[in-house]
Design brief:
By secondary structure, this protein is an all-alpha fold. It folds into 2 domains: 9-57, Arc Repressor Mutant, subunit A, CATH 1.10.10.60; 69-186, Tetracycline Repressor, domain 2 (Orthogonal Bundle). The chain has 9 helices and no strands. Helix 1 crosses helix 4 (60-72), helix 4 packs parallel to helix 7 and helix 8 runs antiparallel to helix 9 (168-186). It is globular. Pfam families: TetR_C_1, TetR_N.
């Protein structure tokens, strides 16, 4: 196990679930998802890898679910104009996904419904308050969440060979405005 010189065990912060997830996120952000191992994580935390299991009994599966929850949960905040509140949420959510792009494949592929529930519920609530019927608000929240995650995934992949450079910001904004325009047509109140 790798220890920093002069760093005694009693000087380290206590091992917590949040500290474990933050250290794992640091590894994934810096080295990629493929480099995340329990041993490497233990080294980064300056503990034996087995100590992590005390906080995450399901091991790496629980760790990966924790990473998804940490990155994918970003509730929308209601504001004066619902469209602007959703624009701000979508931009912040896209930025969060791009900042932690190594976790993005997990967001797309892991079956962790709890990770997106709060986020989708907050978007749905804004749409419902804007006057969309309950079903349309749920569908709209799903469409917005899928759009932002999908756009981030396309952006990560980059343009196809031979495709001209893409202005991802302009493309994101244009697509978001199309969705918001469609949702506005469903709203009963401005």
């Amino acid at each position: 196990m790798v220890r920093q010189p002069g760093m005694a065990a009693h000087n380290r912060p206590p091992l917590t679930r949040d500290r474990i997830i933050e250290a794992a996120l640091h590894i994934v952000d810096g080295q990629g998802l493929g480099r995340l191992t329990m041993r490497r994580l233990g080294d980064a935390l300056q503990v034996e890898a087995m100590a992590i299991y005390h906080h995450m009994p399901r091991g790496k599966e629980e760790l990966l679910d924790g990473l998804v929850s940490h990155v994918a949960v970003l509730p929308a905040r209601p504001g004066g104009d619902w469209r602007q509140a959703l624009r701000e949420w979508a931009a912040a959510y896209r930025a969060r996904l791009m900042a932690h792009s190594g976790v993005l494949p997990l967001v797309v592929t892991r079956r962790n419904p709890a990770a997106l529930t709060d986020t989708a519920a907050s978007v749905r609530e804004i749409l419902y308050r804007a006057g969309l019927p309950e079903g349309a608000a749920a569908d709209g929240a799903h469409a917005l969440l899928g759009y932002v995650i999908g756009q981030a995934a396309l952006e990560m992949r980059g343009p196809s060979p031979g495709e001209p450079p893409v202005d991802w910001d302009a493309r994101f904004t244009a697509g978001l405005e199309l969705i918001l325009t469609g949702l506005s047509a469903q709203a009963r109140r401005p």
